[in-house]
Amino acid sequence: MRRKVIAGNWKMNNNLPESENLISKLISGLSTGKNNCDVIICPPFTSLSLAASLIKGSQIKLGAQNMYYEESGAFTGEVSASMLKSAGCEYVILGHSERRTIFGEKDEQINKKIKKALSSGLKPIFCVGETLEEREIGVTNDIIKRQVNEGLSGLSEKDLDTIIIAYEPVWAIGTGKTATPAQAQEVHSFIRSLISGLFSPASAEKMIIQYGGSVKPDNAKELLSQKDIDGALVGGACLKAESFIGIIEAA
Ligand code: PGA
């Protein structure tokens, strides 16, 4: 049985007081409820060290939303893997569709980031997903295959133990349109078959594959009960403690 992993991607939301407020509510809400999943929050860079100190002793783990693949140097505006580690991060989201579409990140750069994260002891949450246009012209599987092949290129089977894949159809992100459980399950099972072919059936079986795209407390249960859906990467609904906890409890 794979464990369920629920991650909250705060995106560009919450300054320091707002971060403190949300984390305090999450900690008090989670300590009273019963859940047995892994919970990760991914605040903006500026809130990471504060978050790291607030979550000590709770079940919440910390992730960042992006990083650069170089060690250090003249890369204005970028943040390195070792900076994230020293701020208390265990995870890092890489290849999110907003990074791909708004900031022009390509598969090759994402692959470099994944390698750097792994060699620095960070666990990547590697995002893949097709746009609406790609789904409509019937190339969803081709796109997912390219993103998975190139993103994971050059990795070993052992590396896969510390990677989470998040399937996030771009058309479902922040739009209120969720993939149906059947649509999501179909792509998740396709991703698992790709991992099996690229690495091994055993690594495919262990791989945690999250679904992301308008996950809410009222659709989480059905999505998360699909055979190949092992968790959720949550955007909008993780900004309110009640709805993020609602998703965690549904899992
Ligand atoms: P959403 O975002 O839940 O607001 O759709 C998901 C994501 O982008 O990770």
Supply the key terms.
11 helices; 251 residues; eight-stranded parallel barrel; single chain; alpha/beta; binds 2-phosphoglycolic acid; TIM Barrel
Summarize the structure.
With 251 residues, the protein is α/β, with parallel strands linked by helices. 43% of the residues lie in helices and 15% in strands.
Describe the structure.
The structure is a single chain. The protein is of the alpha/beta class and 251 residues long. The protein has a single domain, classed as Alpha-Beta Barrel (TIM Barrel). It has 11 helices and 8 strands. Strands 1-2-3-4-5-6-7-8 form an 8-stranded parallel barrel, surrounded by 6 helices. Helix 3 (81-86) links the parallel strand 3 and strand 4. Helix 10 (217-224) runs parallel beside helix 11. The longest helix is centred in the last third of the chain and has 18 residues, at 181-198. The mean pLDDT is 96. The structure holds 2-phosphoglycolic acid. 2-phosphoglycolic acid binds at residues 9, 168, 173-174, 212-215, 233-237.
